[in-house]
Design goal:
The protein is built from 16 helices and 8 strands. With 334 residues, it is of the alpha/beta class. The chain folds into 2 domains: 175 residues, Rossmann fold; 143 residues, N-(1-d-carboxylethyl)-l-norvaline Dehydrogenase, domain 2. It has an 8-stranded mixed sheet, sandwiched between helices. Helix 8 runs parallel beside helix 12 and helix 9 packs antiparallel against helix 11. It is globular.
Amino acid sequence: MLKEKICVLSDGGWGTAIALLLCGNGHDVVLWGPFPEYIEEMKAKKENSRFLAGVPLDEKLVLSTDIADAVSGAKYIYLASPSQYARSTLEKLRPFYKPEQLIISVAKGIENGTLKRMSEVCSEVLGRVQFCVLSGPSHAEEVARKCPTAVVAASSSPAEARAVQELMMNSYFRVYTTDDVTSVELGGSLKNVLAIAAGVVDGMKMGDNSKAALITRGIAEMSRLGDALGGREKTFAGLSGTGDLIVTCMSGHSRNRHVGEELGRGRSIDEILKEMGLVVAEGVKTSKSAYELARKCNVITPIIDEVYKTLYENKDPRQAVYDLMTRRARSEFD
């Protein structure tokens, strides 16, 4: 593939890992961050010590806080801000965005209040936009170490999905394609909520049976909500659904699982988030959006509901587990 100029919006761990991957593939990459003092710190340390510690930055990677310069001439723009900050990032981008530039979202969440997915937020802020979403089981820490990883690129335009596939694939990073944008976005968002529940299971030391049941029933909830919003059930069985859910529920890298684990140990959500500082667990905010979206669509989501009640109504996690287990008996595939 021809060398391209690419801009990655966000200096978080995942944005940095993507920028390094693209540099390694031979592209000219600019990593944009909103805070000048931190960009200067990254330049001095040649490392993103706050969000991707221990991984040296590629000497070819350009770091910038000037969004106009960062996106100028870029054919591809990666939106890597946490989902609840995506709108503000897009507002900064809007004066400089060109319709021929392809937006590739790697943010995983549903916006609070509007209940919009990132594709919908992009369209609302930028107007008609070329859009692709990249999702799947892909912790930044492991991608940066070049661990074999497989993800999926989804776009309503097969050509755009293939372009992202060609842009990113290499010997350790494999990209599949689909046109099911809705399901891929929902899978990447809802798995973070379910990972909080998985963390509660770990924190309460409930064992493997409990976690396996939670993951399996979580897939059912994701699929039901996806179907109500026009997605395809088959997609949730793939990398952006089952794959991402497994890794986020099982991995020590998972911030969302960590939040749940601490909840299961009896700590409050305020205490947990304060300790995490600037590190974002997307599932905390997304649980509110997911709960409200399920109500809006009249979809049954018992696990998501209990996560919401634990986070926002101070429900005891043990009572949440009891209420899940004592629900009315039903057929598995109702």
